[in-house]
Structures are given as C-alpha cells and as structure tokens.
Amino acid sequence: MSIETNTGEILKNSGTFLASLIILPPLTIGILRKTKARFQNRIGAPLLQPFFDLAKLLQKNETVSEHASWLFRIAPCINLTVMLLLSLLIPWTSLTAIPHGIISADLFLIIYLLGLARFFTVLAALDTGSAFGGFGASREVTLALLVEPAVMLCLACLGVRAGTSDLSQVFSYEATRLTGQYGLWFLAGCGLFLSSLVELSRMPADDPTTHLELTMVHEAMILENSAANLALAEIGHYIKVALLLGLSWQCFMHCLPSHLLSDWTARAIASTGGIISLALFIALIESLAVKLRWTKLPEFIAYAVAMAIFSYLIALSV
Amino acid sequence: MKVDKESISLADLKEILGKETHRIGHFTSLDGGQLLALLLDPSQGDKGVKLYEIALENGINSYPSLTIKHPQLHWFERALFDMFGIIPSGHPRLKHLYLHEPYERNFFPLRRVPLPENFNSPIDRRFHFLEVKGEGIYELPVGPIHAGVIEPGHFRFSCLGETIINLEIQLGYLHRGVEKRLTEVPLKHMHFLAEAVASDTSTANALAHAEAIESLAEIEVSERSKYLRSIALEIERLAMHIVDVGGMSTDIGLLGIASAMGRLRGTALGMGDLLTGSRFLRGFIVPGGVRLPVNNGLFKLKGQVARLRHELKEPIAMFLDNQMALERMREVGVLKASLAKEFGMVGPAGRASGQDYDVRRAFSHAAYPNMAPPTVTAREGDILAREMVRIKEIWSTLDTIDRLLDNLPEGETTGADFSKVRLKPDSFAVGIVEAFRGELLHLVATDKEGKVARYAVKHPSFNNWTALAIAIRNNLIADFPLCNKSFSLSYSGNDL
Prior knowledge:
The complex is a heterodimer.
Chain A: H1 3-39, H2 49-59, H3 70-89, H4 107-127, H5 131-162, H6 167-170, H7 182-199, H8 218-221, H9 227-253, H10 264-288, H11 297-317
Chain B: E1 2-3, E2 5-7, H1 10-19, E3 23-28, E4 34-40, E5 49-55, E6 62-64, H2 74-84, E7 87-89, E8 137-142, E9 154-160, E10 163-170, H3 178-182, H4 187-195, H5 202-217, H6 223-252, H7 255-276, E11 285-286, E12 289-290, H8 301-321, H9 323-329, H10 337-342, H11 347-352, H12 359-362, H13 383-406, E13 428-435, E14 438-446, E15 452-458, H14 460-471, H15 480-487, H16 491-495
Parallel strand pairs in B: 2-5, 6-7
Antiparallel strand pairs in B: 1-13, 3-4, 4-5, 8-9, 9-10, 11-12, 13-14, 14-15
Helix pairs in contact in B: 4-5, 5-6, 6-7, 6-13, 6-15, 7-8, 8-13, 13-15
C-alpha cells in the first residue's frame, strides 16, 4: 500500500465523516418530526426545517437574564465542544475521522464526557435562578442517575468480551472475539437504545413537543436560552441524538452477517440508514406512546438495565 | 324563572343552611345594603329555587362569615367584599379576588349605599399567598402569562421536591366590570353583552340571559324556539367536550388523536353554522325566541350528527384503548365525593366525583327537563373519570340533538319586539342553565322603574376553581397541567 492511497483513504474517510457530522444530526431530527407529523395526518415542516431554525436563531438578538452569570453563556459552547469531541470518540458511524490507534476511545472517558456536558447544562439551568430551570435540572440529574448504569454496563460487557475498553477497537469490525456474538450485540444495542430514549429526552421519559413547562425535563433547562445561545444548545442536542442512536445502531449492525458489510460503501450506507431508521422508530413510539408519569419512569428504565444485565451475563458465559 | 325574595335574618339563614341539603347558587348583594342568598334544591325542581334577603343594619357593612361552616361560600364571600365592600368578618382567607393593586384601597365598584364614615378596608390590595414553611419547601410561580395561548391566571405552588403541598390561584386579570356594564346598556343590546361574558360559553350565557329577561318581561316563548335553543346549547357542549378531550390528548402526548379531535370540533362548529349562521353560535338566542339565519341548514343537521357519531368513534376508541394513556390519567388529581359536595362542584368535573347534579334534569330551561338525557356520573374523581364523563356526554349529547330534531315542534320563533318590552319593577328573575362546564346562573333584579338594577352572573368555573386547588394537593408538579386541563376552567368567566 503506497502512501498516496493511504492519504486518499484518510481523506475519503474524514471527508465523509465531516459531511455526515454536519448534515446528519439536523436531518435526523427533521425526519423524526416529519414522520411524527405524517402519523398525525399533518403535512409537517420541511425536512430541512432544523437547518432553517438554526439559521434563524443565529441571526436573532440574544436576551440574557440579569441574574445569569458568565456560566450561562458559556455552557452551550462547552456542551457543543464536548459533543464534537465525543463525535470523534464514539463509534457512531462505521467511518472514523481519525485512523484507529491514534487516540483511544476509552468507554469510561466517553461516559464521563457525557456527564461533563450534562453537568454544564445543569449548572447553566440553575444559574438563571428560574424555578423551571431548577426543577428541570433536578429531573435531568435524577434520570441520568438511573440510566447511567445501563449505558455503562452495556458498553462495559462489550469491552469485557473484546478484552479492551477502547470502543474504537470494539466496534472496528475486526475484533475477533466479538464476531458472531449476535445475542450480545443485540441485547447491548437494545439496552443502549432504551437508555438513549431517556438520555435524549424523548418519549416516554419526556415530551419534546410539549408547551407545558411544568412537565418538561430537557426543555425546562433551556427555557432561558435564546438566539445563538439556544442554537448552540440545539446543535449540541442534535449531535447527541445522532451519536447515541448511531452507537446503538452500530451494535445492531454487528448482528448482521459480516459478508454484507465487508465493503466500505455498504457499511457507510448502512450506518447512515440505521440512524435514520431508528429515528423513524422513535417517531412511531412517540405517536403511540404517552409520556409516563414521573414516578413510573424507573420502571421503564428498568427495562434498559435488564437488557444490560442480560448482555453482561452473556458476556461472562461465552 | 321568576323568584320571590323572602326577607329573613342572618340567624335564619344559618339555620336553613345548616338543616337542609341546599347548594348555594349565588351569594351576593344588590347595592351593598343587604345580602342576597340564592339557594337551590335540585331534587325539588323549579320549586327548589329560593332567594333570601338579609338586610344589613344601617351603617354596618360587616357580618360574621359563613365560610368556615359552608366552604362553598369561600369565593362568594371574597367576591362580595371585592364588589360591595361588605366584610365577612372571621373569613379564614379574606383577600381580594378580582381587583389587584392598581385599584384604590376603598374602591368597591358595585356598592351604591355609602360606606360607613371613616371606613378603611381591613386588607390591602396585595395578594398575600399562603406560605408553607419547612425544610426543602420551595415556591414555584407560574403565570399569569403561560406558554400556550390561554387566558391569564397566576398559580403559586408550594412544593416539596416534585410534590405539590399547596396551590394558590390568583385570578382577576380578566376583570372587565361586566356585571356593572350589564346594568348600564339598554335592554335591546343587553343580550349581545350577556353572551360575551365568557365567549366559549356564549349559547349558555345567551340562554340564561333570555330565560331571566323573559320571566321579568312575562314573555311566552314558543315550543319550537325552546327546542332550537336546546339544540344550540347541545352543539356548544358537543364542540367544547370534543375540544377538551382533544386537549387532554395533547397534554399527555397523543398528538394524533388531538389533531383528529381538533378537526371534528370543526365539524361540530359547522353544525352551529348550519343552525345559527355563526360557528360560535353568536346572536342566535334572543329574549323571546331565536334568530334563524336566512339560509338555515336545519334539515342538514341530522346528517351531520350521524357523520360526527361515525367519525368520533375511531379517535375516541384509540384514546380509550391506549393503556398507557389510561394509566397516565388514573388516580391522578383525585377529588373525593365528600369534598366535591362541600365545595359545591358542578358540571362534568363534579359529576366525575359522584355529584349527581345536572341542571338539565333539575331546573327548567329551554326544552329541559323534558328532553334531558340521563345524568352521566362516575365515582373515582380522578382525571380519567372526568374525561370518561366528557366522552359519555359527547355520545349522550349527540343522542339528545337527534331526539330534539325528531320532535321539533312547528311554530313561530321570532324574538321579542324590544320597543314593547317592559320589565316588571322590583322583581327578581334567574336563568339557570347547564353550560358545558356545569351550572351557569344569571340573576337579574329590577328597580322601581323596571330597570335592571343588579345583574349577577355565576359562571360554573367559579365553583370549580377552588376544587382544582384541593385536587392537586400531594400530586406531582408534572401532573398539574393534566389536572388543570381535566377541569377545563374559564378565567374570563370567573373574573367577569
């Protein structure tokens, strides 16, 4: 293999990665909203509406509460930065911007980076002193506390099986010890998907379309944000949606027969299509399910934890 | 209907309230010099409507409060103080109900008897919220401007974590002085104002007004008019119940059902258009009869009823088959039957808490009680029960419209000629109507010259607002919007 082809390979990889990082997250949200609208017999906003919304928000004048400190303004930037960093670490598509082995996508690093982003969002919500931000933050932290073990366990049992905590190796389509472990991959994927519903404030944990402040979780935290500040928070959230859906989809992709995915293009198309189909699935859930009572949510999260425990048992036994 | 006033003493009133199973229809005053108590006994029909006058001694504008023994009077006594400056002394939570800080301290808009010399209001205009103290208690202010396009009202929650310990509701942001204005406009314009008291209840208000004015002017109304009025009232109930069930679907997140219900509400309003020429049924019911539009679509109504009955089936079945949705509403915001009775709750919310009270079966108005459907009740008193009562009433309302159309008598329907209408002097009349929220009441009193001296409106929301504050206690914060929606209360109807 000559150096030129290698560089070409890296450029192709990075270019596609960058393009999908920019286009995919808002598009996924657009598709999700459009599907929900179609389920409700509405025509719905255009698929590209999230892009238009962001462009609109970036042009607006910002209003900042007089009680807010510098933290409130800086938090969405930190949040977005962490998300961009995570997009390089989390194996959410089959593409990688950085060739394997250069940085280690340690699963504990990923969990704690997710925690760091949440920490700053919560601080910013508390910073303005509004009651809504306060209880939104309290709810977010409670949910995170419940759902984190499931995420951690799902990723850890894959790592245990593969013998490494570097996720880029676990998901590299090369790890031999995990090849053929369809049950393990599937259960881990389900566990991660159920946890992402909670992490991403989708139904049945939170209703992203509601206007009722008293029932909000994620939305209550960003009620005070406006203009560019809100746009950054939204972009961060969109990327998080793509990352977490992508991560659970990669688990499912490893359940597919490997000869189907031997090709680079096939993998790239399947990765992208997978994220979109999971978004369609969320739209289906949100059209049929209602938001659960706050006290019933632990029961829902228990499903994710159960998936994680089962996959852990499989990981130990084989 | 016409009511005769009986003068009694306060001690007599206490005795009557203590002994008998009355509900309090209204508790107010004419001009500040007396108390008026309208008591209703639904079991006795029209004979059960009694009006008592309790004279206040010259120069005295206070009396011992009755609220502690009869919690129904809680807001009535506050409104009495706001409007007339009559102090219910010993009232446990006396504060202004309608008038906020911008009003002068000693301003009582409906009082015509002069205030005692050197009188100074015992409380200031500021709204003092009940404070809950203790570790971990925090206050959560919501409103008066809300996230949705709804009316203004301020809610002050005292919470412990996610649990609501106490809720205080401050209304009055929509106080427009309707009752005073109703005594000022000429009779021929009065029905326009009366039906705008609360615009989502326009038919019921117009009907209550017409009933009261007709009995004061001794106008006979034709049977056909009565039936047409009933049809209009039922169409309003139908449209608003559909909207309320749709609103509940929105709030729990069933947006598909919500948009279907929104569309079907349009069909129901279209029925209003066919009958009255106005989708919101405005200007239809006038004293003496009804105003039919030139191209009235009366003959098309039956087809619309059948269509609506068919098209409502699917979304309502989807709503009731969704176990997650039922689970969400069950045992949330429970109001026990005993409390519902104590607070004198009315309408679907009251019936969901076991109150067997439907004005259509109790007191005569329009084509009722002859054409009244069976009362729908439930015992559970939770959000689900309130929605179930609404859904059952949607079906019973469709049946009632069908029955009214089938039995529609022939006859004249033209309204009264206002140039000839003279109201009986020194008399009282009351119109009691089952609006879609429950018992709506217009009490009209005339002076010596036969002019309207006092026009009192009691909207059903007035009874139910306090009940909402009780029902939400010890529930979760996130359950309040659902609970609020299930009561479906009017701000403007309360604030007047």
